[in-house]
Amino acid sequence: MRVLAAGLGLLLLGACSNGNEPPLPQAARVRVLHTIRGGPSLTVFVDGVRGSALGFGDLSRTVFLSPGPHDLVLVPPDTTHSLIVSFTAVEGVGYSVFAIDSMSGGTHTIEPVFVLDTGAVPAAGHARLRLASYAAAAPAVDARRTQPDSVGMVVSAQPLSFRAVTRYFDGAPGEWSVVISHAGVTDTLLPTGPIALAEGQARTVVVLDSTAGHVTWRLVPDPN
Fold first, then answer.
1. What share of the chain is helix, strand, coil (3-state, %, to 5)?
2. Are residues 31 and 54 both part of a single domain?
3. What is the distance between the alpha carbons of residues 75 and 40, in angstroms, rounded to a whole number?
4. What is the DSSP letter of 218?
5. Which end of the chain is more exposed for a tag (fewer CB within 10 A), N or C?
């Protein structure tokens, strides 16, 4: 239980500090989203410790890690290949990991794609939203959004390509929304409907594959 022990140790040491010692390092945070429609279930292992079992669209719990080198592997129950990815966790940084199906020479390989949650902390009195596309089979799409302090639809990504991740958009708390359209037109392929964002919250709208030619979405909270 090395990973869990590291996170617990940070919490316990912080509780015992008398204020005279140097500040303790903040834990890094990692969570995984399964984005492979029709793909196998995946079990998350960090540093050899078994964690969440995920189906399509599932988000793992957040794992807290000490700063430094770690290994992550997503293990399917079948013969699909998986990659062991070594990464260096940076103090206080959150990582969203998207599990995709990478094809090479006719071989399916489960690949974890790391995205830093840099910029997820809103300014006082604000909320933040970003968009990500992990819909491998989707047609070319654009993305627009509404937010409480804007008038009409605001272009957010043109196009929103597979594996694209926008910056965090800053704005007033309240009801936001996102509309995904076919690239170059302003039709409605996917409307999220109202997304409630409270002050201090950050969220990611992840576009995922649905039935042929269509997309769905998953709202991912900030990893705090």
1. 5, 50, 45
2. yes
3. 9
4. E
5. N
**Cβ proximity of 31 and 97 under 8 Å:** yes
Total count of domains within the chain: 2
Kindly state the helix (H) or strand (E) to which residue 8 belongs, with its residue range: helix 2-16
Q: Which amino acid is at 110?
A: I
| Shared domain check, 72 and 46 | yes
Can you give the CATH number for the domain in which 81 is found?
Answer: 2.60.40
**Which one, of 198, 196, 193, lies nearest residue 216 by Cα?**
193
> Which pTM does this prediction carry?
0.86
At CA 187, angle to CA 202 and CA 198, rounded to 5? Answer: 15
Q: What is the mean pLDDT of each run of 10 residues along the chain (224 residues)?
A: 33 42 77 95 95 96 96 89 91 95 78 94 96 95 97 95 97 98 96 97 97 95 76
Q: CA angle, corner 163, sides to 29 and 133, nearest 5?
A: 90
Residue 103 belongs to domain spanning: 2-116
